[in-house]
Amino acid sequence: MGRELKRKQAKREGKNVKEVKMKNQKQELKPKTFATIIIVLLLFFAILYLITGLFITKDIKWFDKKESEKTEQTSISNKILASDSLRQTEEEYYVYFYDTTNEDSSVSNIVSSINEKVYRVDLHDDFNSNFIGEESGIVENISDLKVSDPTVIKVSREKIVEFYGGSENIKTNLG
User: Fold this and answer.
1) Regarding beta strands 151-156 and 159-165, do their DSSP bridges make them parallel or antiparallel, or are they unpaired?
2) What is the pLDDT of residue 66?
3) Whole-number pLDDT of residue 73
4) Cβ 99 vs Cβ 151: under 8 Å
5) Which of 1, 34, 60, 132 has the CA that lies 20 to 30 A from 20?
6) Low-confidence stretches of the chain (pLDDT beneath 70)
């Protein structure tokens, strides 16, 4: 129906012509406004996600590909908690206790050259803080184990068989 016909019909029915126009315009704009509201909300959440990912959680890294490659290369393999030192799958292995903030490179090289499997325990980690203290030597129960920085133990069949505490002791016995 054309605009003139709608106006004439509205006059015959005694309705206001402006009200009829407003109703028609509202009906025509409803799907458009709904779509624009959805698009605006999606854009808002996308921008919020990007801001959160870039600045707060730092999960999104677009800018420094070289930096992310460096962190992947320097990540430590075979890192475990001190409480899991006697519960590994191998029958015989070494566990290297060290502090990442104060690591001795010569001791790390000696430990890396060991032919058997070596697990690493970061003493700087708060979960391992209760294992730091005066060296206990070979113990039966893992909860009794106390180490200083650096320490290497040899584990065989879930028991500590060798204990090397201090960098000089490690260098003379394993190097």
Assistant:
1) antiparallel
2) 54
3) 45
4) no
5) 34
6) 1, 15-29, 62-76
CA distances from 143 to 15, 161, 162 (A): 88, 16, 17
Contact 21, 31 (CB under 8 A): no
Tell me what pLDDT residue 47 has.
Answer: 93
**CA–CA gap between residue 97 and residue 125 (Å, rounded):** 11
Q: How far apart are CA 57 and CA 49, in angstroms?
A: 10
Chain centre to alpha carbon of residue 109: 28
C-beta separation of 152 from 170 below 8 A: yes
- Sign, CA dihedral 84-111-75-148, equals positive
What pLDDT shows up at residue 64?
Answer: 56
